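Q: Study each token:
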Amino acid sequence: MMSSSGLPQLLSRPYKYLRLEWTSELGLLRVRTCVKPIQCYSLAGLTEMQRVLDDIAENPGLVRHLVLSSDVTGVFNFGGDLALFVLLVRAQDIDSLKMYGRRCIDLVWWLEHAAQRGVHTSVLVQGDTLGGGLESVLPFHKVVFERSAQAGFPEVLFNLFPGMGAWPLTIRKAGFAVAKDMILSGRLFTAEQLLRRSLVDAVVEDGEGEAAILDIVRSIDPRLRGTLAALHAQRMVAPIGYESLLAVVELWADTALTLTTRDLRLMERLARAQVRKAGGAEEGAVEEIKRIELDTAWGELRSGNTAWGEERGTGLTAWGALND
């Protein structure tokens, strides 16, 4: 049996945005996130998550299963820190934008190599997850969504793109055509749609996610060594390189500096909507994205641009693809 000498250090750190739970029987570490005031990947939240991963790596054999979920009702993660992005773009601070991106891909890189560290990873999505939030679940070995959860890459709506792994991770799981459609459309997708696109491994009814995750962990644990070896082999035959992740971050930061005043205002709209949702409001960023798409649709229709309508169907159903 593995020594638990590293466990006190792992569990006793004074985290502000994470809540850790330990199940010794399964070597299971549960990490629940709660970032204030917005459930997103803030720099402080990224730092705390990296500290957890570093602790796991420094105590090999202690953690066999890592499970990530959210402590915020109705939200898994809104992704990038939009308010911070706006500040950095207005200051033309490209170094800080690149630093933020590198922090994100460092987490992706750790998760990419979790099997080599002897750790099986699972993520439970209960609620909305956007942009970097969706990017962050894709490296996990098992992805479980509750039925009401929605997800997508809305960045194109404000002339940006998801730059921390969305392209290679989505292509590997679902193929180039799906990745292109999801990233370039800015659309939102239901849990069932993501399941059909192979981005989600299981969809369960609302409220049943916790039990489903525990069932997954219990079913994998007796065959953990073989499962991890197979997952390691999968990464070997379909590798994602750190240098390519870093190159995309550089492009993402360069692109961010070209955002217009209109683009930044749209980002601010989404950031305000995220705050409302985090404060317990019924509506949040998902509804704001739908309004932005409708505003765009009406603007294009008024300007006589019929190509948009031909591509999407009609201006009024820009986000009606939720029904496909």
Notes: The beta strands are 18-23, 28-33, 65-70, 75-77, 120-125, 128-130, 142-146, 150-152, 188-190, 202-204. DSSP finds 14 helices and ten strands in the chain. The mean pLDDT is 87.
